[in-house]
Amino acid sequence: MSTNDLHAIRDTVRTFVTERDWDQFHTPKNLASALSVEAAELLEHFQWLHTGVRAELGEQRHQEVAHEMADVLVYLVRLADKLDIDLGKAVEDKMVLNRAKYPADIVRGDARKYDQYPKD
Question: What is the DSSP letter of 114?
């Protein structure tokens, strides 16, 4: 997803919020809480499934998952907007840190946490 895509989502959400006079409720704390709730609602669709692949979800649940994912993205983009965080840049910066923590030549095919790999 490009920064332009994120800005378009941000602008769509801003318009939606402004039309409803909801900005007063969108404090960073409230948005972070709402984001957590929506993430839990997303997770609920996968509870008790073996792997959660698309075929296991079925069409209706797949569409519901898509809607929950949209809710998560909307709240994340809104929170970034309120805190003046450029999500595209934040992802780029985080990937630099992740590459340092998880060098591909060391961790390829291994899902352990970075602090569980042997030290030089």
Answer: G
